[in-house]
Design goal:
With 243 residues, the protein is an alpha/beta fold. The protein folds into two domains: 67 residues, Ribosomal Protein L25, Chain P (Beta Barrel); 157 residues, SPOUT methyltransferase, trefoil knot domain (Alpha/beta knot, 3-Layer(aba) Sandwich), CATH 3.40.1280.10. The chain contains seven helices and 13 strands. The strands form two sheets. Strands 6, 7, 8, 9, 10, 11, 12 and 13 form an eight-stranded parallel β-sheet that branches. Helix 2 runs parallel beside helix 7. It binds S-adenosyl-L-homocysteine (SAH). The site of S-adenosyl-L-homocysteine has 16 residues, from helix 7. S-adenosyl-L-homocysteine binds next to helix 7.
């Protein structure tokens, strides 16, 4: 199997060269029954802390698969310090935002409840599983953190003020991305509204805070999920690791 196609899995316990990793039940099923790996077959493992390692299948039973961790191939690297806060959407669109935010290198993802948010809950365990899958697939070393689902006002009350909060303003009040890229240095966070947009009360509140600024993504109104992905992409291109 070429390096490009080699299986890459998240390890739930810390990895070190010379150590072993016991695959979880789901991983054992995937490696044995889906991918049909045999003894000595190679897998990439990363644990979100120590980097990435080349491992080989050392023991295999029906229920259990043990990998030997042979050598480190990449040092640990964190994604840039950009967070995405988004008003939760219908289930599938929330899934898309979370998966793509992982690929686009957000370090923390925070689901938010705003005035016009229609979805009333999220399933953190399900979203965490999606984060792991997207990190495996995108060859990311670190796992982004999933923040608690909080009402916008509460989140703003406890905001770490050294982190600029850039809200995506569809009303045309914001500056263009290129004009304010210089003021969006790390640490930074983007906030995207729900399908119904922000209420005028929320926009007033956001405008009044010292650590916020408004940005526009042009005169076309984007779907909320598109706006999240566009904001992260623009930021990576202007300020992040696509520069
Ligand atoms: N219902 C609103 C649109 C909401 S779009 C209306 O019809 O006016 C959902 C969210 O995506 C917005 O709250 C905003 O955060 C973001 N967004 C969409 N288009 C945008 C744009 N052109 N510029 C900045 N943000 C945008």
């Amino acid at each position: 199997m070429s390096r490009k196609n080699r299986i890459r899995l998240f390890a739930y316990t810390p990895l070190e060269t010379g150590g072993i990793y016991e695959a979880t039940e789901a991983q054992t099923h995937y490696l044995s029954n889906v991918m049909r790996l045999g003894l000595d077959d190679e897998v990439f493992l990363f644990d979100g802390v120590h980097g990435e390692f080349l491992a080989t299948v050392a023991q295999k039973t029906k229920k259990n698969l043990i990998l030997k961790v042979n050598k480190k191939i990449f040092d640990f690297e964190k994604a840039p310090d950009v967070w995405l806060l988004f008003a939760v959407l219908k289930k599938d669109n929330t899934d898309i935002v979370v998966q793509k935010a992982v690929e686009l290198g957000a370090r923390k993802i925070i689901p938010v409840r705003s005035e016009y948010t229609t979805a009333s809950n999220i399933k953190p365990e399900r979203l965490k599983a999606q984060i792991i899958e997207a990190a495996e697939q995108s060859r990311r070393q670190d796992l982004p953190e999933l923040g608690d689902f909080l009402p916008l006002e509460k989140l703003l009350k406890t905001w770490p003020q050294n982190r600029k909060l850039v809200y995506l303003d569809e009303t045309g009040q914001g500056r263009s991305f290129s004009a304010c890229a210089k003021q969006m240095k790390e640490p930074v966070a983007f906030l995207v509204g729900p399908e119904g947009g922000f209420s005028s009360k929320e926009l007033e509140l956001l405008k009044s805070l010292s650590y916020t600024s408004a940005v526009s993504l042009g005169h076309r109104i984007l779907r909320a999920e598109t706006a999240s992905l566009a904001a992260l992409s623009c930021w990576q291109a202007f300020c992040g690791d696509w520069k």
